[in-house]
Specification:
CATH class of one domain in chain A: Alpha Beta
CATH architecture of one domain in chain A: 3-Layer(aba) Sandwich
Number of helices of chain A: 7
Largest sheet of chain A: 5 strands, parallel
Distance between the termini of chain A: 35 Å
Helix content of chain A: 25-40%
Mean pLDDT of chain A: 89
Number of strands of chain A: 9
Low-confidence stretches of chain A: 1-5
Structural class of chain A: alpha/beta
Largest interface: A-B, 38 and 38 residues
Oligomer: homodimer
Radius of gyration of chain A: 18 Å
């Protein structure tokens, strides 16, 4: 029987690593989903974002984020150390280039968490990545989640709700939508895991060069 | 926040049922995979094919296949009772139209098992279906599986191996490839289940009209 080397699975090879971009409106629970995925030990390399925002209770520097000062962040921008960055609500967030190099060298699937603007930028850089939009179970759930964040003042809350409405309208940038319903975190994580398994079975793999 | 009715998930509705076509070379184990999927109680409607081939031990009429005589099969062809049919190795197989009507009326995802020629026909009729190619772990595994079938005579075995080689070359018709490795049936079933979950999360659902 002929060999079909254009598909790595049939050639007996490992499939190409995937780049999975997990995005969605502020407050939808991207961090909670990622935390659960990492705790479950799902096999992927997580890209740790740099941020100038304050560390929340329980967050670890270098694991959840690289927590840096505003001054250091501006230095990273000036030195072109970042693949992509944004200032949102007065806080900087960005993807360090060394994180992407490490991720690609790991040989594992790469998962990247980013806001919707950032996802649009990544899509221009790496259209073959897999774009997952995390959506709230309902608009009311999103409001509740944002209100529960003690770090938010009322003006910031209103700003975030407006931005979230705009972000929800950009769903068409994405390949998949996963609902992160209240008290159903595991279902969202399972669906993301299923997407990762399914994408590795593609006859024509989506190969990313970054 | 605006409502996004173009995506059923965000509008709080059930996603559209999928049509999943499971194909692959003769002997790869399509029947075993389907049997396991049905035993696990995965939520889908299975399209029961009509065939003129002899019932194998353990197979149930109306569940595994509709077992009919050659005469009755030719009558079904003449009456246009079949969506698609083929004569392969002197045996008829076909998809009764009433099965498709029942499947669509069920509101559940529909799974259809068919040989590679048949999958090509379904693709012309319903390009929005999801096409999964079940492949053997290796060419040697396929040969072993075909030899183990007591129903095969040596000439039939050689014919099937030749046809299987041609069928393997038609992988590009399909969306996904799943390896059905020896003693790893559950992994194949899990991957198919993941594909079904992932496809229901598409931002732009693949809606079939049949």
């Amino acid at each position: 029987m002929t060999e079909y080397h254009y598909n790595p699975l049939l050639a007996g090879a490992q499939p190409q690593p995937l780049l999975i971009v997990i995005s969605g409106p502020s407050g939808v629970g991207k961090d909670s989903v990622l935390m659960r995925m990492r705790k479950l030990g799902l096999p992927f390399h997580f890209v740790v974002t740099a941020t100038s925002r304050a560390r929340r209770p329980g967050e670890l520097d270098g694991y959840d984020y690289h927590f840096v000062s505003e001054e250091r962040f501006r230095e990273m921008i000036a030195n072109e150390e970042l693949l992509e960055w944004a200032e949102v609500y007065g806080q900087y967030k960005g993807i360090p280039r060394f994180e992407i190099r490490e991720a690609m060298a790991s040989g594992r699937d790469v998962v990247l968490r980013i806001n919707v603007d950032g996802a649009a930028t990544i899509k221009a850089l790496a259209p073959e990545a897999i774009f997952i939009f995390l959506a709230p179970g309902s608009p009311e759930e999103l409001r509740r989640r944002l209100m529960l964040r003690r770090t938010e003042d009322p003006a910031a809350l209103e700003r975030r709700l407006e931005v979230a409405a705009d972000e929800m309208a950009r769903l068409e940038l994405f390949d998949y939508v996963v609902l992160n319903r209240e008290d159903q975190l595991d279902e969202a994580v399972n669906q993301i895991h299923s997407i990762m398994i399914a994408e590795k079975q593609r006859v024509f793999p989506r190969q990313v060069a970054l």
